[in-house]
Amino acid sequence: SFQPSPNVTHVTPSMTSGMAARARALRATGRTVVDLSQGQPEFDTPAFIREAAQRAIDEGATRYTATDGILPLREAMAQQANRRHQGLDEVGADEVVVTSGAKQALFNACFVLFGPGDEVLVPTPNWTSYYEIVELARAVPVPVLGDPAQQWKVDPDALRAASTPRTRGILLNSPCNPTGAVYSPGEIAAIAALARERGWWLLSDEVYRRIAYEAPASSVLDCTSDRERVVVIDAVSKSFAMTGWRLGWAVGPREVVKAMAAMQSHTTSNAAAVSQHAALAALQGGAAADGAVAEMVEALRQRRDAALQELLRHGPVEHVRPDGAFYLYVRVGSTGGVDPGAFAYDLLEREGVAVVPGAAFRTPEWIRISYGGAEADVRQGVRTIADTLHAAR
Length: 393
Ligand code: PLP
Prior knowledge:
The chain is an alpha/beta fold. The chain folds into two domains: about 130 residues, Aspartate Aminotransferase, domain 1 (Alpha-Beta Complex), CATH 3.90.1150; about 240 residues, 3-Layer(aba) Sandwich (Aspartate Aminotransferase, domain 2), CATH 3.40.640. The chain is built from 13 helices and 13 strands. A seven-stranded mixed sheet has the order 2-8-7-6-5-3-4, with helices on both faces. Strands 9-10-13-12 form a four-stranded antiparallel sheet. Helix 3 runs parallel beside helix 10, helix 4 packs across helix 5 and helix 4 packs across helix 9. The protein is globular and about 55 Å long. About 50% of the residues are buried. The mean pLDDT is about 95. The site of pyridoxal-5'-phosphate has 13 residues, from helix 4. Keywords: Aminotransferase, Pyridoxal phosphate, Transferase. This is Aspartate aminotransferase. Its EC number is 2.6.1.1.
């Protein structure tokens, strides 16, 4: 019989995908299900990007490319980093590696930077895959609980308290999945300063950076002039509604991206050629790209406001008011004395509304609601949640 190797003994399938699969299974039996568990907005990829990709296929973008990605794309990524970095210590195309989604960039970065015995600080709650990716690198993820009164954000004191002589890095995510919290430039600078002082790697996952509703969300590149131990993770997935194209990248020190590319040359090779050309169109899209992103962010803002309005229809409910991304994090507590983790499962079975249990983000009394879906679904689903919470009180 199958005995998993020690490589994967810690790995569990993603709870996010698990809820989506259960929602699909219920639908297949004829039930109406409102799916608020998805980690993606329901928009189509903007037309100018799809058209550029179609042209690229016709013009021969059907073969292997350089492992680290086509040069014009890496140049466009470097240029985007430099616009944020304000010319300090210019990022070159050789400090960029193109990957199959942000997930691969994160995985490869963790794999080349961390190993057995290393500890990596993970502000919590946070995206479920961080813990698993660090474990796949045989390092130890150390959850650092944020402050629920501060949108669950962590500060340098909390990080300091969780650190040991074995701490090697920290995974920062702003805007944050699942809370929608956005770290201010001052908060990012303070964390970057601590990482620099301690010699920790700072991995900054900025895949939701363009999806911010109040002030623009800052990159770590806006907040520090020293990027010797900084790796920025980005992707077109969320900002350009391109999750299925699987296209992300990392910006980091030359030796780090070289090691990531070497690793990738023996695993997946280059990211899909057509996806690279699609991403190039997105990054070079100028006003068309900015307009498409702004339109999506505006639609998401309306859905956020609709979700908040429905959530609070019977009065206060503890939640994080999201300033970015497209998730609403809500405390359901131990309603009616039931196991708090069961709330999401009961909600799906009884009411036909799918959300992700907070256990996936190591805060089991909470749930994550995605408002990336159609506004009518968001309203209906969140209203059901508010009614359920109200009835249990
Ligand atoms: N980082 C965060 C915080 C995410 O929420 C996700 C997707 O859910 C990813 C990375 C993965 O992005 P990609 O689809 O580009 O691999």
